[in-house]
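[recover] target loaded
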């Protein structure tokens, strides 16, 4: 098989399983190197090994692919990686409103994320890199966000519309971590709590209510902040008056995110039930930080389907025109 394609498939499978970002990135970088090399170098072991960006693992993959074989590591990964889930609801999802690039804490450039979304058949993808307060994630200042917006929208084409967005931090007082002028310029605003997740329930409730009432907010992201598995360990969910927060989401037309990352499973099932009772809209989002994670939407669709969330109340099943009208609403 083609060596570059083998390297990229390995990277994608590693990303889907949330393996070390550095492992996946090494295979993507090696694919770029392979694409730039002539056949005589690829078929010369000594010259190939001397190339910057080619290590022992990627060298073995390239050599086996050049020999006409499916590389051993790819065979191993295909057998180990859990297959993609299928559900009737997954087939109705048209896009994804929460994804990250290397402008903040994602692993790849905008165009690589967009190409992966296009390959999945998405009709739209929102690029929602972090806001400035989240320094560990290289959150975007107003100046960097202003620079990013036209680059994001310029990626639209071939059946995919790329939406300019942000995952904006909900500050301790419920304010949003970006200027109103910049939020006005965006297509999609996901608002999430990333700090002081253990504050007392009353204060957290007031914090979230203030954010939900802001007319810029479209989606309430991973609302409890919990982690239930994975390399980052576990983290208990934030405590707040879910019925009050979701009633406000319903009042203001803010979609409650069903975060598709298996390590989050956020909101928990009992909170999805409350959000349903309160009449909320929902958005099933991948929260992808790498191209291979965009396919995690199937986990979110499976959870939503099991919880009985009707497709018509999931904004990411809507066509682009209706989605834009809601987001502007």
């Amino acid at each position: 098989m083609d060596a570059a394609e083998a390297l990229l498939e390995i990277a994608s499978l590693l990303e889907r399983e949330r393996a070390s970002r550095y492992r996946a990135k090494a295979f993507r970088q090696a694919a770029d190197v392979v694409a730039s090399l002539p056949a005589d170098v690829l078929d010369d072991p000594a010259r190939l090994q001397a190339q910057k960006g080619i290590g022992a693992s990627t060298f073995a993959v390239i050599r086996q692919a050049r020999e006409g074989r499916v590389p051993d590591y790819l065979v191993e990964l295909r057998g180990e990686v859990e297959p993609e889930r299928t559900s009737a609801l997954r087939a109705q999802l048209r896009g994804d409103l929460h994804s990250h690039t290397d402008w903040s804490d994602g692993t790849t450039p905008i165009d690589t994320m967009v190409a992966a979304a296009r390959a999945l058949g998405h009709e739209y993808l929102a690029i929602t890199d972090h806001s400035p307060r989240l320094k560990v994630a290289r959150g975007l200042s107003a100046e960097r966000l202003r620079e990013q917006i036209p680059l994001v929208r310029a990626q639209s084409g071939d059946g995919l519309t790329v939406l300019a967005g942000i995952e904006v931090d909900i500050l301790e007082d419920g304010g949003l971590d970006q200027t109103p002028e910049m939020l006005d310029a965006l297509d999609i605003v996901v608002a999430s709590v990333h700090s002081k997740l253990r504050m007392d329930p009353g204060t957290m409730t007031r914090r979230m209510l203030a954010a939900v009432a802001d007319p810029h907010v479209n989606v309430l992201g991973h609302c409890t902040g919990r982690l239930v598995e994975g390399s980052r360990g576990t983290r208990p969910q934030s405590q707040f008056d879910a019925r009050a927060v979701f009633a406000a989401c319903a009042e203001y037309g803010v979609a409650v995110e069903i975060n598709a990352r298996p390590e989050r499973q956020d909101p928990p099932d009992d909170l999805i039930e409350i959000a349903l009772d309160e009449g909320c809209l929902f958005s099933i989002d991948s929260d992808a930080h790498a191209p291979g994670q965009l396919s995690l939407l199937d986990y979110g669709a499976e959870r939503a389907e099991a919880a009985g969330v009707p497709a018509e109340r999931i904004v990411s099943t809507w066509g682009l025109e209706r989605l834009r009208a809601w987001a502007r609403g």
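[recover] notes: The chain has a mean pLDDT of 96.
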